[in-house]
Amino acid sequence: METVKKICTGDVRCASRLIRDIEDKIPSAKSQIKKLYPHTGKSFIIGITGSPGAGKSTLTDALITELRKRNKTIGVLAVDPTSPFSGGAILGDRIRMLRHAEDPAVFVRSLATRGALGGLSHAVGEAIHVMEAMGKNIIIVETVGIGQQEIDIINHAHSVIVVLVPGMGDEVQTMKAGIMEIADVFVINKADRAGAKQLQTEVMSMLNSAPALTDEWRPPIVMAGNVYDKKAFAASMEELVQKLENHYLYLKGSGRMAERINRKIIVEIKDALRANILEPIMHHLEESGELTNLVKKIKSRKSDPYSAAEEIARRKVK
Amino acid sequence: METVKKICTGDVRCASRLIRDIEDKIPSAKSQIKKLYPHTGKSFIIGITGSPGAGKSTLTDALITELRKRNKTIGVLAVDPTSPFSGGAILGDRIRMLRHAEDPAVFVRSLATRGALGGLSHAVGEAIHVMEAMGKNIIIVETVGIGQQEIDIINHAHSVIVVLVPGMGDEVQTMKAGIMEIADVFVINKADRAGAKQLQTEVMSMLNSAPALTDEWRPPIVMAGNVYDKKAFAASMEELVQKLENHYLYLKGSGRMAERINRKIIVEIKDALRANILEPIMHHLEESGELTNLVKKIKSRKSDPYSAAEEIARRKVK
């Protein structure tokens, strides 16, 4: 049986191999993804983002448990930061999620890619499609930090959870403003800690002052209690799933889902253009030795990077 | 007098306007930067990166004070996160640096740009050139967080300071591994806090186990004390400047400076190619309505983003 068919029946080994090939930029992965594409688009995709240390992995883990109670099949994509030098993933498949490893309805993979030409977002889009083709009802994409690149990644999601935690310093508080607009649901982790109430108030007042958020959907704030108080924590996870369901219904009912799907497709086109246009040009410049010559000329100020790029564009673009 | 000449005499108003034009992607900025380019390449560029809340702005401020004692002229570029929705800078010109505003030898600007096509790194490279042309001896580039994009930005620097702080949780500790390789000098802020010694030991053991770092340059770790203990803090800033000087001398003496300059130029070429090739193609797709049609076809699964991008590449690239 061919790979695509196997993946569509949920074959874990084939799906894992294809995701690894995407990560490693194996050319054959591309044609596989194209063949898978007609079988995608049926999953609900949830993004989870927040500062490092905010407890995103713990939350993802608890969310899986809660969704499994409702008989949902789940794919989890943990997006890792990659050193441009070593090229390796740092966190690997998150250890805390291993307890779901025995459950065939849960498929967890981490993803990291080399290169600065936006390859990570491209790979995320493709890996999501693999999980969609597997037939997973819900796909959770978890980023490691918060930044422009994480925002690009989170654009692949239909619904975005922003995880906050009290006591991360005022610079973090300021940064929150930047992610305010991408949040559909807030979770305040470690809500038993000092400062949690104040953080909740701050988020509320930010929501009140954001004009774009006053219409239709107001992002709810879920207070996630102490993980060791199992009962209270489970109750907050139940609340979170309820809020996600509400958001899903809102997206469907308001026509916003169609907008988000369009935005997702545009991101995928941009990523694919980068891979199909910019990367081959750079590769050719490197292989032909032209890049070395250009660097020499620019270094001695006989040229500059901007004129050089314009000249290349004139030569390469119709 | 034309803009370029004025900037080369250190004219703050002209330089500020050009940086604003770069940020706003005003087409005339491009030709100005090209004209400035022959006057660039003489400054030493220091990058400062670290997690949000690690105290980077305070450190930059103290570093300015210390460098001013040595009569250096300074440019500071604070790179802000931008919301892809509002398009606005969040932090603005860092408030804590305002006390240097009266000093004509210090030029502080913040920078943020819209768009996900790697525009920020491109703008950072150009803004650095403006400050170089102004004749600043030292240019400090400060990022807000740590991530792939920050690493792209930091590639514009000759020497990189990574700022750490005790007590940021274990996920942050793990992340450090990813930035280990870009650090030339470590600063542990709030070194009077519990856990600072342990953090120092951790960084040391990471340095010991990193094979690439055992040769030639071993990144020193500067323990920056309590900012309110002015004498102790000033002493640690003196030490930091000494380490930066050592690194500069090492780069010059070992030939590594030439390597870094080459790397910097390659980053600039890549950024400029993106601006000259990918952005116009995307723009044309949007303007002509072709993008809307493509999205429709992909949405109904009659096509996919990858085949669409390949087709565009065939049409647009020679």
Which structural traits does this protein have?
homodimer; 318 residues; Rossmann fold; seven-stranded parallel beta sheet; 12 helices; globular
Walk me through the structure:
The structure is a homodimer of 318-residue chains. In chain A, helix 8 links the parallel strand 6 and strand 7. Chain A has twelve helices and seven strands. Chain A has two domains: 38-254, Rossmann fold, CATH 3.40.50.300; 272-316, no CATH class. The first copy, chain A, has helices spanning 3-8, 12-23, 27-36, 56-69, 119-133, 148-154, 170-180, 196-209, 230-254, 256-288, 290-299, 305-316, and strands spanning 44-50, 74-79, 106-111, 138-142, 159-164, 185-188, 221-223. In chain A, 49% of the residues are buried. Chain A is α/β, with parallel strands linked by helices. The first copy, chain A, has a seven-stranded parallel sheet, sandwiched between helices. Chains A and B meet through helix 3, helix 5, helix 6, helix 7 and helix 10 of A and helix 3, helix 5, helix 6, helix 7 and helix 10 of B.
**Main beta-sheet annotation of chain A:** 7 strands, parallel
Indicate the mean pLDDT of chain A. 84
- Across the major sheet of chain A, the strand order is 3-2-4-1-5-6-7
Would you give the CATH topology of the largest domain in chain A? Rossmann fold
Content-based structural category of chain A: alpha/beta
Assigned CATH class of the largest domain in chain A = Alpha Beta
CATH superfamily of the largest domain in chain A: P-loop containing nucleotide triphosphate hydrolases
Low-confidence stretches of chain A: 83-96, 170-174
Contiguous helical run count of chain A: 12
Order of helices and strands of chain A: HHHEHEEHEHEHEHEHHHH
